[in-house]
Every structure is written in structure tokens, then in C-alpha cells.
Design brief:
The chain has 6 helices and 7 strands; from the N terminus they run βββαββααβαβαα. Helix 3 runs parallel beside helix 4, helix 4 packs parallel to helix 5 and helix 5 crosses helix 6. With 226 residues, the chain is α/β, with parallel strands linked by helices. Helix content is 41%, strand content 24%. The chain binds zinc ion. The site of zinc ion (ZN) has 5 residues, from strand 5 and helix 6. Zinc ion binds next to strand 5 and helix 6. GO terms for molecular function: guanine deaminase activity; zinc ion binding.
């Protein structure tokens, strides 16, 4: 029987695959074969006893298969649902203050630097490269109040091939670091500009981010006060 027209295979891997599905939070598949076509789509995941039939049907040779070692396994990309990209510039440091003091002492003054596109490009490139390297294939990013560099973050994400929502921060009140805030009118106008500049997913990302961030910070403040 003739095979239907299919895009050629780009990769065939053999080894252990770990994933989750509706019926199991973690499923470990030993001795499996996974095929990926040139569009990057997984086209099969089958037990290795199907190898001969798969090879015939997809036209690959044994020498095309990349075999994982005993200590290697594949897993799906990780999803970071809450990451503040500008704060990457001081990741792992400045952990000596409670949240509100931490925001006014470190975070807002740092975020205020992101109206400088060279600075923003340098840090945003590092955060996207690092998260991808660590296996984060999808992320929900917060940027800053600056529209142009928030869009720059989206462009960097596109360039490196990560999937993401990018939210512009909207902040029309900030007594502690007054240089880092917008007027309400600017905030609305810039948010509209940002959404028109990219696609509607950014609007969704914005609201998701705002909702989650405020909820998270409010809850954390409440918790710290207990
Ligand atoms: Zn947050």
C-alpha cells in the first residue's frame, strides 16, 4: 500500500520518554521511538518493537535513529507561568528585604532602567536564552511600564523561538520611586499601542499578568503580615 504524502522526517529518537496525560500525572515510556517531521511536529511515539514497520512507513534507516543513553530521557518543555523578565538582572541576589521594601529598594529602581533599549536588550536576551537553556519552552512574562522595550522583549522571544505571553506593566501610582510610573492616560494609550503592535495574545497576556501578579503580591503581603 502506498504511503500518503507526508513531510519528511527530521529526527527519530529512541529511548525513554517521560510525560503526563489525562489519566496519569507522570508516565514513563521505556524503549520507545519518537519521530519529528520537518515542521517540528511529533508524528509518532511508539514502542521499539514497531521499529521495522515505522521505518518502512516513514522511510528512515537504523543509522538515522539517535539513541539516548541509559541516563538520558526526554520530557515536555516546562511552562513558567509567572516570570518578571527585568528582575533577571539581579536574579539570585538582593533577598534580604520583605516584599514592599524589596520593591522600592531594588525592583522599581531597576525596572526604571528599562527605558534604555541597550540595557533592556542585553538583559532580555540573557533571560530568554537562560530560560530556554533550562527547558522553559513557554513563559508568561512581565516586562516594565515601557512599551518599546516590552515589545523588544517580544521580538527577542520570537527570535529565539520561545512561546510566550508578554505583559506591559501598568502603574499610575508609585510614591516610593516616583520616576517609575505613568499617568493613567499614558498607561491606557501605551497599552493600546502595545496591543496593536503585536497580536491579541498580548492583550490576554497583559490581563493574565496583571491579575496574577496583583493577586500573588496581595496574597504574599497578607501572608507576611500574619
Ligand atoms: Zn509578580
Amino acid at each position: 500500500m502506498d504511503s500518503p504524502q507526508r513531510p519528511p522526517l527530521a529526527h527519530v529518537f529512541r529511548g525513554t520518554f517521560v510525560h503526563s496525560n489525562a489519566s496519569a500525572p507522570m508516565e514513563v515510556l521505556h524503549e520507545h521511538l519518537l519521530g519529528v517531521d520537518e515542521n517540528g511536529t511529533i508524528v509518532f511515539l511508539e514502542q521499539t518493537d514497531q521499529q521495522e514497520e515505522l521505518a518502512r512507513s516513514w522511510g528512515f534507516k537504523t543509522s538515522d535513529i539517535r539513541e539516548l543513553s541509559n541516563h538520558e530521557f526526554f520530557m515536555p518543555g516546562m511552562v513558567d507561568t509567572h516570570i518578571h523578565a527585568p528582575q533577571y538582572s539581579f536574579a539570585g541576589t538582593r533577598v534580604d528585604l520583605p516584599l514592599l521594601q524589596w520593591l522600592t529598594t531594588y525592583t522599581f529602581p531597576t525596572e526604571a532602567k528599562y527605558n534604555d533599549s541597550d540595557f533592556a536588550e542585553e538583559v532580555y536576551t540573557r533571560v530568554v536564552r537562560r530560560t530556554l537553556k533550562n527547558g522553559t519552552t513557554t513563559a508568561c512574562y512581565f516586562a516594565t511600564i515601557y512599551t518599546d522595550t516590552s515589545l523588544l522583549l517580544a521580538e527577542i522571544i520570537d527570535k529565539f523561538g520561545q512561546r510566550a505571553f508578554v505583559g506591559k506593566v501598568c502603574m499610575d501610582m508609585n510614591d516610593s520611586v516616583p520616576q517609575y510610573k505613568e499617568t493613567t492616560e499614558d498607561s491606557v494609550q501605551e497599552t493600546e499601542r502595545k496591543c496593536l503592535s503585536r497580536h491579541t495574545a498580548f492583550l490576554m497576556g497583559l490581563f493574565l499578568n496583571l491579575y496574577k501578579c496583583f493577586r500573588y503580591h496581595a496574597e504574599r503581603e497578607w501572608y507576611l503580615k500574619q
